[in-house]
Specification:
The structure holds 2 protein chains of 2 kinds. Chain A is an alpha/beta fold. Chain A has one domain: Rossmann fold. In chain A, strands 6-7-8-3-9-10-12-11 form an 8-stranded mixed β-sheet, sandwiched between helices. A 4-stranded antiparallel β-sheet of chain A has the order 2-1-4-5. In chain A, β7, α7 and β8 form a beta-alpha-beta unit. In chain A, α3 crosses α4, α4 crosses α6 and α6 runs parallel beside α7. The longest helix of chain A has 18 residues. Chain B is α/β, with parallel strands linked by helices. Chain B has a single domain, classed as P-loop containing nucleotide triphosphate hydrolases (Rossmann fold), CATH 3.40.50.300. Chain B is built from 11 helices and 12 strands. In chain B, a hairpin with a 2-residue loop joins β4 and β5. In chain B, α4 crosses α5. Chain B is globular. Classes of the chains: A alpha/beta, B alpha/beta. At the A-B interface, α6, α7, α8, α9 and α10 of A face α6, α7, α9 and α10 of B.
Chain lengths: 332, 323
């Protein structure tokens, strides 16, 4: 699997922060609140690589994906795409967005119900004036449908989303994302709305596309076992920060951060595990608008020390490409 | 006497496009303190089965045939007025999506107590006290009884839903995707809680889910549903380690297993059928790799392979491989 990945870095994110101002004046006496959805995230994504961002709701994984694509304003930090910083400048942004696409979670909501499949998939071509003739446009859409496994494509061109099943809709979404021949795709929970029997076929399709075109994916999911299955590397997020990042196999089997270990321990395995002792963290992810010093996880951490609530842990090397932010861990 | 016996249940919906057989000849039973997992893809009839047991079907739905015996008494034949006495007292249900299932303008204590006051005619004070006890049982501080739903997190709302289901000491609790909308950590907390309550209160638990992988940790028995029928039913060991039905086998493969090789499975070709046009013969045959002539024409009846292990597949005994 790994031979497709080259050393070329497609996306480089450096200390990215996304803060949302929540004006509470309308309802409460308290002052302004800031939600630190993403609070200093850095990672590289290589050509042909699949990196999963895993976290619970409110961990900032979706916001990270959207911020890279400049779909939400970035408060600070830098995003580089193919070596050049992504800016808000219009022409630059337009060129960037041709090569960086997004696959959304719910194919029942992400397809325009009033357009037929041909127009939905051709929309990026139309917007960017990339299809000269009607024949060219049709040809491109047909080949996109075919690669997305919707064959024969002629059967789908003039149908509307409501005529398709959930799996077929998600294939349309993938075809639409791939028609611009992107270098980078943010896939935000692309299979969580699909039935188990359909899910794997969409994952296979995404992998096929990667093998064929060398596209890189940022795969956002709450499902750690899915992340293990599809990705080369996994980053575990908690309250806007990456706690641990490393090769998928390493994170699952030899995770170091207490949060990673808690997640891997409760990961359901299809099999009889009645006697398995489930160590479950208490409580839920705290409010991201509360300012915290120290490690964000220390309130729920089973092995927290005094230091943890005072000082924020830095990343330490735990192995090749394996970084962990935890005071408990000391480099060998 | 069995706690719950469902025999040849048929639940049909009258739609403008014809009769939809959401549940078509489903049979299973449940003992005190036992947990049964009902698993299947969307539209397979698992939730309709649950709603039929509580007789909470929408007005288009009707129980066309079969029996639902709770301690020997048939629920299916009771009128709406008669069933009301049994609902909550005998069987209660925890709905999916706790975020939307609670009344936003009523504090949780009143919501939990409501069923007790109506069913048992106790006073408000008694109801409050019992509601507070129930909150404690689901691991929420009893002082929070006067709080409103918006003051709770998602996981705590689901706990309130569980407390509510337990209000009248039911014999059977049905959890309809009780953890689907929750985070993984909270899901594990809720499943642990349900397990604990089942043991302590010796109640029958039916857990409905699309996520087969959580059932191995929580259920004694598992029934796999497809297109309104039970395809295979057995102990968790039968289903996970000795599955006989091609659908069960494929479905298990679809869930990533970190204890096995990292290969993305093929999945199952096609999509679940439109329930108005269920294929003739075995409903699964168009998606089945092993389908042969007989599967296209005759519907396989459930057959007992070993004690408690039932399979509805023509090919099942051809490859008995019980070690």
């Amino acid at each position: 699997m790994n031979n497709i990945i080259s050393d070329e870095i497609v996306v480089q994110v450096t200390d990215m922060k996304v803060y949302f101002d929540i004006d509470k004046r309308k309802f409460a006496r308290t002052g302004r609140k800031v939600v630190r959805a993403v609070d200093g995230v850095s990672f590289d994504l290589r050509k042909g690589e699949i990196l999963s961002l895993v976290g619970e709701s409110g961990s900032g994984k979706t916001t990270t994906g959207k911020a890279i694509l400049q779909l939400v304003p970035v408060t600070s930090g830098e995003v580089k795409f193919n070596g050049a910083p992504v800016s808000k400048e219009k022409a630059m942004l337009k060129a960037f967005r041709q090569k960086a696409q997004m696959i959304y979670q719910d194919p029942y909501q992400s397809l325009n119900p009033r357009l037929n499949i041909l127009d939905i998939i051709a929309e990026p071509l139309d917007v960017n004036h990339l299809a000269g003739t009607e024949k060219e446009r049709m040809g491109k859409v047909c080949s996109a449908l075919e690669t997305a496994g919707l064959t024969p494509p002629e059967d789908f061109l003039y149908r509307y989303p409501y005529e398709l099943s959930g799996g077929q809709r998600q294939r349309v979404v993938v075809a639409g994302a791939m028609i611009m021949d992107p270098d980078f795709i943010v896939a935000d929970e692309p299979v969580s709305m699909l039935d188990a029997s359909i899910r794997t076929s969409i994952l296979r399709l995404m992998l096929e596309m990667r093998d064929k075109t060398g596209v890189s994916y940022l795969f956002i999911t709450h499902d750690l076992s899915l992340a293990w299955l599809i990705s080369d590397r996994i980053a575990i997020m908690y309250l806007g920060k990456i706690m641990e990042i490393g090769p998928a196999e390493e994170i699952i089997k030899n995770g170091i951060h207490p949060y990673t270990r808690a997640l891997t321990k409760i990961m359901p395995v299809p099999g009889v595990n009645k006697d398995k002792e489930r160590i479950v963290l208490e409580g839920e992810t705290p409010d991201a608008s509360i300012e915290m010093t120290g490690c964000r996880f220390c309130g729920r951490c089973p092995v927290a020390m005094a230091e943890c609530s005072e000082k924020e842990p830095e990343f330490k090397m735990a192995g090749p490409e394996h970084l962990v932010a935890c005071h408990r861990f000391s480099e060998a | 006497m069995k706690l719950l016996e469902v025999n040849h249940l048929q639940t049909y919906f009258d739609t403008s496009h014809g009769v939809l057989k959401a549940v078509d000849d489903v049979s299973f039973d449940l003992e005190y303190g036992e947990s049964l997992g009902l698993v299947g893809e969307s539209g397979c009839g698992k939730s309709t089965t649950a709603l039929s047991i509580c007789k909470l079907l929408p007005k288009e739905g009707r129980i066309n045939g079969g029996e639902i015996l709770i301690e020997g008494q048939d629920m299916a034949s009771l009128s709406d007025d008669e069933i009301r006495k049994h609902r909550w007292a005998d069987v209660s249900i925890i709905f999916q999506g706790a975020m939307n299932a609670l009344n936003p303008v009523m504090n949780v204590g009143d919501q939990i107590g409501e069923a007790m006051i109506l069913h048992e005619g106790i006073t408000k004070d008694e109801a409050d006290k019992r509601a507070a006890d129930l909150l404690e049982l689901v691991e929420i501080p009893r002082e929070r009884i006067a709080n409103y739903p918006h003051e709770f997190s998602g996981g705590m709302k689901q706990r309130v839903m569980i407390a509510m289901a337990l209000a009248c000491n039911p014999k059977i609790v049905i959890g309809d995707e009780p953890t689907t909308a929750l985070d993984v950590m909270v899901q594990a907390q809720i499943l642990n809680l349900l397990e604990k309550l089942r043991r302590e209160l010796n109640m029958g638990l039916i857990l409905i889910t699309h996520d087969l992988s959580i059932l191995g940790e929580t259920c004694d028995k598992i029934a796999v549903m497809y297109a309104g029928r039970i395809m295979e039913m057995g102990t968790a060991d039968d289903i996970f380690n000795h599955a006989m039905h091609p659908y069960t086998q494929k479905l298990i493969e679809c869930f990533p297993n970190i204890e096995k090789a990292k290969i993305i499975p093929e999945g199952i070709k096609g999509a679940p059928p439109n329930m108005l046009e269920v294929p003739e013969g075995c409903a699964f045959h168009p998606r089945c790799d092993k389908a042969c002539d007989v599967c296209m024409h005759s519907r396989p009846e459930p057959r007992e392979i070993s004690a408690a292990h039932v399979v509805a597949c023509h090919l099942a005994d051809a490859e008995v491989d019980h070690e």
